[in-house]
Amino acid sequence: MRNSFIDVEFSDIYIKLSKASLHQFIKRMMNQHYSLYWRYDAKTIYLMIERDESVHELPFLRNTEFLTLSAESIYIYDEGLASALESLLQHEKGNGIVKRSTDGPLYITSYQSGDIESMIEIDGSEKVMMNQNGSMIQYKGNDKSLNAKTIYNVMNLEIDYVLMELHEALESSDESMVETHKRKLRRLLSRREQVEQLL
């Protein structure tokens, strides 16, 4: 991951919040001893959230009756805030992808209108996927037991993750990891092309 202290990344997040819901979220965070304040620019309002030495900012678009939390990527390195934000994503019927790294696997949960669309565990070559009905499906390699559309969506998430790793390797000038991630990416893109033929 980008830094060892980053545990959770929220990608393509979109949550429309009424002012009442936002006030409840702020009150909940303050009850957990976070400090909150606002920062403004021309189009965006930022909710700044502090605790101990960590500072996070959540970008909101200005609207009349509600505020919209919208961002391509937000890194959260505080478990309490990450859990609160994921709960907000569910309760307010938001969309987004939550990538939660652990000492072991990476967990990727995709939300659509507040519901879990898919949950994937990435650990080596084996993946475990949970769909919105809660059933677990395991597959390895090109197992065709999943339908083509599901495999395609899973592969897109994997490609997104490998691209992130490649970017980090390029930034740190780690040539060995750059080549490793490029190989992974070529393999995934080739497999995705094969799956596209089945759609």
Give the SSE map.
Blueprint: E1 8-18, H1 19-31, E2 35-40, E3 44-51, E4 54-61, E5 66-76, H2 79-91, E6 95-101, E7 106-112, E8 115-123, E9 126-131, E10 136-140, H3 148-171, H4 175-196
Antiparallel strand pairs: 1-5, 1-6, 2-3, 3-4, 4-5, 6-7, 7-8, 8-9, 9-10
The beta-strand count equals 10
Calculate the terminal CA-CA distance, rounded to whole Å.
32 Å
In terms of DSSP E residues, the strand content is 35-45%
Largest sheet: 10 strands, antiparallel
Q: Treating each run of at least 4 consecutive H or I residues as one helix, how many helices?
A: 4
- Any idea what the shape is? globular
Task: Report strand order across the widest sheet.
Answer: 2-3-4-5-1-6-7-8-9-10
Mean pLDDT: 80
Structural class: alpha+beta
Order of helices and strands: EHEEEEHEEEEEHH
Number of domains: 2
Radius of gyration: 19 Å
In which range does the helix fraction lie? 25-40%
Task: Give a verbal description of the structure.
With 199 residues, the protein is α+β, with helices and mostly antiparallel strands. It folds into 2 domains: 7-146, no CATH class; 147-198. Helix content is 36%, strand content 39%. The protein is built from 4 helices and 10 strands; from the N terminus they run E-H-E-E-E-E-H-E-E-E-E-E-H-H. Strands 2-3-4-5-1-6-7-8-9-10 form a 10-stranded antiparallel sheet, with helices on both faces. Helix 3 (148-171) packs antiparallel against helix 4 (175-196). The two termini are 32 Å apart.
